[in-house]
Design goal:
2 domains; eight-stranded mixed sheet; binds S-adenosylmethionine; 8 strands; alpha/beta
């Protein structure tokens, strides 16, 4: 079974994978880096295609990194821990499940092993409202209980294939800028930062306790330039907004847009296509059709290759 994300993550890229992979350089990369890895959908897709010699995964979220480290070195104890979570939770009444959720949510992770910490994250991710991971200003997970009839808390098959994929990865808690410093000519990096908000009130940047504001977006755009000078291939996704277009339009980046259908939403205003920017510090591949993923194209998605910002 090909590996895939083990958690549902806000901003997850599963639906956009084919369009994104088509925009990466062709061939096999010496190092593939994903400094905002989140659910790491792209990493898992590339690992299944053996597209890199080694990978570097990082995220600011220490709970998430603990989970990946546990999958990498202790997958059996992690599976056993999740089996216990699942058995305990599913045999309870709904009221007791709710209590169980809030008890686990309140646990301090300070002295937990990676297995304990990772299992707690998966349990909360599978049982919380909407499967989101969001933290408050103190860095504490604060999503409420979600009422699911039979949440799948343990998926051993997905964890075991992630274990295989993560064998060649270095995984750490880091700011993106620490990762970009380590990359050398020929390496490939995909940045999927918290997005520029679509509106002033629509900001969702609280995956970890530090928000990702305009300064951080600008710092990241600067990093793309310095990576280009060092001949590192960098690709970045962002929301398509006036401010994000302005950030990349004048600096010699190659900017294209991709579209994906949103999942059905009960809120009418949130239905329809989402448009996202894909920014690279290298020219687009001649043929974006030689998709390395052995899957039929997703009929829900279509690509537009309008070059918005290329000045070269
Ligand atoms: C859009 S999500 C990534 C989604 C991911 N590509 C996926 O497929 O699920 C952004 C991630 O960036 C992380 N993050 C936020 N600020 C960061 C920073 N300064 N450095 C590194 N990671 C950061 C968040 O914790 C979050 O997991």
């Amino acid at each position: 079974m090909a590996s895939r994300s083990v958690v549902k993550w806000a901003g997850g890229k599963t639906r956009l994978l084919e369009q994104l992979v088509a925009r990466l350089p062709a061939g096999r990369f010496p190092t593939y880096a994903e400094p905002f890895c989140g659910g790491a959908a792209m990493f898992f897709a590339l690992a299944a295609e053996e597209r890199f010699d080694r990978a570097l995964l990082a995220d600011k979220n220490a709970d998430l990194v603990a989970l990946y480290l546990a999958i990498q070195t202790d997958v059996d104890p992690l599976i056993e821990r999740l089996r216990k979570y699942s058995d305990t939770h599913l045999r309870k009444s709904e009221e007791k499940r709710r209590e169980h959720f809030y008890k686990v949510r309140a646990l301090s992770t300070a002295k937990m092993s990676n297995v304990e910490r990772g299992a707690r994250l998966v349990f909360l991710n599978k049982t919380c409202f909407n499967g989101l991971w969001r933290v408050n200003a103190a860095g504490l997970f604060n999503v409420p209980f979600g009422t699911y009839a039979k949440p799948r808390i343990l998926n051993a098959e997905v964890l075991r294939s992630a274990h295989v994929a993560l064998a060649k990865a270095t995984i750490r808690v880091a700011d993106f800028s620490d990762i970009t410093k380590e990359l050398v000519a020929g390496d490939v990096v995909y940045f999927d930062p918290p997005y520029v908000p679509l509106s002033k009130t629509a900001s969702f940047t609280a995956y970890s306790s530090d928000a990702f504001g305009a300064d951080a977006q600008a710092r990241l755009a600067d990093d793309l330039i310095s990576l280009k000078e060092r001949q590192v291939f960098a690709m970045l996704s962002n929301a398509s907004t006036v401010s994000s277009r302005a950030l990349y339009a004048t600096r010699g980046f190659h900017v294209t847009t991709i579209r994906a259908k949103r999942s059905i939403n009960s809120d009418r205003t949130k239905r329809g296509d989402v448009e996202e920017l894909v920014v690279t510090n290298f020219p687009a591949r001649e043929s974006a059709h030689a998709l390395p993923l052995h899957r039929a194209p997703d009929p829900r998605s279509s690509a537009s290759t309008a070059d918005l910002g290329a000045t070269e």
